[in-house]
Amino acid sequence: MKGNSVIYSLFISTSLFLTNCEKADEPVKNNKIENLLSQMTLDEKIGQLNQYSIGAELTGPGAKEGQNKIRYEQLKNGGVGSVLNLLGAKNARETQQFVVDSTRLGIPLIFSYDVIHGYKTIFPIPLGESASWDLELMQNTAAVAAKEAAASGVMWTFAPMLDISRDPRWGRVMEGGGEDTYLGTEIGKARIRGFQGNDLSDITTIAACAKHFAGYGFSEGGRDYNNVYVGKHQLLNTILPAFKAAAQLEAATFMNAFNDIDGVPSSANEYLLRELLKGEWNYEGPVVSDWNSFGELITHGIANDKSEAAQLAINAGSDIDMEGSVYIESLKQLVEDNKVSEGKIDDAVRRVLKLKQDLGLLDDPFKYFDEEREKNTLLNADHLELARDAGRKSIVLLKNEGDLLPLKAKNIAVIGPLAKDKDSPIGNWRAQGETGSAVSFYEGIEAALPEANITYAEGCKLSIGPNNFFNEVEVEEEDRSGFQEAINVARNADVVLMNLGETAYFSGEARSRSEIGLPGLQLELLKEVYKVNKNIVLVLMNGRPLTIPWEAENIPAIVEAWHLGSMAGHSIADVLTGKYNPSGKLPMTFPRSVGQIPTYYNHKMTGRPSTDPGMVFYSHNMDIENSPQYPFGFGLSYSTFEYSPIALSKEVINKGEKLTVSVTVKNTSDVDGEEVVQLYIRDVVGSITRPVKELKGFKKLMIKAGESAQVDFEIGEEDLAFYRKDFTFGTEPGDFEVFVGTSSSDVQTATFKLN
Ligand code: NOJ
């Protein structure tokens, strides 16, 4: 009998069972999986745990050559459970058909892909979008990314990245929600909700993946793939809350991190996987390795060969082997040798089958593949409009001296290597975002200001040679031939818009930098232009916080515009012209220098935070102040806001009680504007040292010119709880400080007591 008919007959019997017994849906569903599992051979089970990156050629003309030959055979014989990077409704349908027809049980594949900030319509890079502090927006952009991806046959994305990171040298900060646990967790939840919607089997939603579990954002020195050393309290209080929330929200899958933590690589980390995720947190989804991260257990030096690597990974609780061929080559023998129990394999397979069931694939393996829908969905006008809106909401106004912005001048020079670059705004991890498809900064300005006299000079180049996902970026450091033209253009303008920063491939995976200033000749160019015209608006495009001490000191207006995606130029123009009043706030601290790193707002006090003037024995650097260039939560608006002192509903609360914290925020300007009102707390004395401030809430609201708004926050026990000295989670009685303000360093303060 053909495989699919086995599955279908199984469905008929289970649905009869359902009508007969009128049982709740869930146990019956699980029954379905048990039935299927009971029919599978050990080889077929192991096949479900095997994942490859394949192109459409695997079942086409090139199928039987080289490495493809092995994969072709495995695909044909039920040796592959899911694939990544195979795209397009037509290609996916053909491959699915091949698998369903040729394998004994006809269990369909899952098609997966890195859909990080859009599929074809590209939204701001996640770090940039996080600056919007707009959770609804982030949920919406993830939902559109899912809709487009699903229309192209993708059912599972490897996102969101939940790695908290405090090191801007790490190139992958562009993929996450920034440095803060609370904000990062809320953003992660919004993105998961966006990708998954309410029903995974809906053809417009896709499965999310909480990655990288865990600690990847703490790689030593910010160097990608490097080792991680974090204490258990730090792990529990800072790194894991976003993952725990993702598990509670039923993010469909988790992904192992590449790194070790204090000697134990994540793919073989029983504590993380079995004890916490699948134990304490009761997580029921599958955990996928990162790309060959099981194979890398050999390179890490904790396994001698693939067999040992497979044994470590499966026993630790890792379920799917992405591109490692470690499980497919070794698991069977390991079971026969009694080194791995078949029960562990069954558990992993159940998780994979459950995902297939939740995606609706066991009912209809072809439901996602509709070429007509694909054509009508990708780059839909509404999606592009959302990209424009997401772009402008992600922009952070860092400085605006002398009200240079919004633009009033008519004689405008646009200068910089990124100004006409239609590719960099697409950012790294761009899925199917086409090379060179963004609205450039120049195009945006030109379209927004048809009456203005706009001149342009590139000034310098940013990199030499290939600029793509796979190649090392080589920074241009010699060619000053464009400087003179830039100087000439600047001299004759009322205002100079300088568009500087990083191309898309200065950040992302494997894009760590040891210096994070403007790369190449850009600062030199900026200084030359500044000599002839000081009316400069510096528009930064970058995938990480940069060190910009000279710029911050000298340039009157600075706009952080990240890599904003398909509509970047229009989004930036909306802000520069005042069509949109900027409302973004930094999700990550901008340090003054690399030597200051890590610089993050919620650090501990230390025993010596400061001292009397003139005394040297306190925690500091001799050559730079401790404060950052721009703190977490910081961002200006064309409006100005004034905060009232904090009013508390009580000054003492008992366990289980709540407290209301209120402030009145007044828009003291004559322009309507949005403000992100931020709430922080400090637990003054604890059983372990506690951060000087921790974000515990925020509200983004529009306040009309001259008007005031009262903002109330409720603080309850869960906001004050943490993993205590004995690693239990809960509160400790004592004094708390509460802060409300416009950034982590500009706040009103009050105190209360928890009994
Ligand atoms: C490696 C990256 O670390 C991970 O985030 C990504 O999902 C996989 N490659 C698949 O592309």
Layout of SSEs?
Elements (H helix, E strand, L loop, with lengths): L2 H19 L3 H15 L2 H7 L1 E4 L12 H11 L5 E3 L4 H14 L7 E4 L12 H5 L4 H17 L4 E2 L23 H16 L12 E5 L18 H8 L1 H8 L4 E4 L3 E2 L2 E2 L4 H11 L6 E2 L7 H5 L5 H11 L4 E2 L3 H11 L5 H17 L12 H7 L3 H14 L1 E5 L10 E5 L25 H8 L4 E5 L5 E2 L9 E2 L7 H9 L3 E7 L20 H11 L3 E6 L7 H6 L2 E4 L7 H10 L63 E3 L3 E2 L3 E2 L5 E9 L5 E11 L10 E10 L4 E8 L1 H4 L1 E2 L5 E2 L3 E10 L2 E9 L1
Parallel strand pairs: 1-2, 1-10, 2-3, 3-4, 5-6, 6-9, 12-13, 12-16, 16-17, 17-18, 21-29
Antiparallel strand pairs: 7-8, 11-18, 14-15, 19-22, 20-22, 22-25, 23-24, 23-28, 26-27, 28-29
Bound molecules: 1-deoxynojirimycin (NOJ).
Written description of the protein model:
- The chain is about 30% helix and about 20% strand.
- The chain is an alpha/beta fold and about 750 residues long.
- Residues about 1-30 have low confidence and may be disordered.
- The protein has 23 helices and 29 strands.
- Among the domains are: about 385-595, Glycoside hydrolase family 3 C-terminal domain (Rossmann fold), CATH 3.40.50; about 640-755, Immunoglobulins (Immunoglobulin-like).
- A six-stranded mixed β-sheet has the order 11-18-17-16-12-13, sandwiched between helices. A five-stranded parallel β-sheet has the order 4-3-2-1-10. The chain has a five-stranded mixed β-sheet with strand order 21-29-28-23-24.
- The structure holds 1-deoxynojirimycin (NOJ).
- 1-deoxynojirimycin (NOJ) binds next to loops.
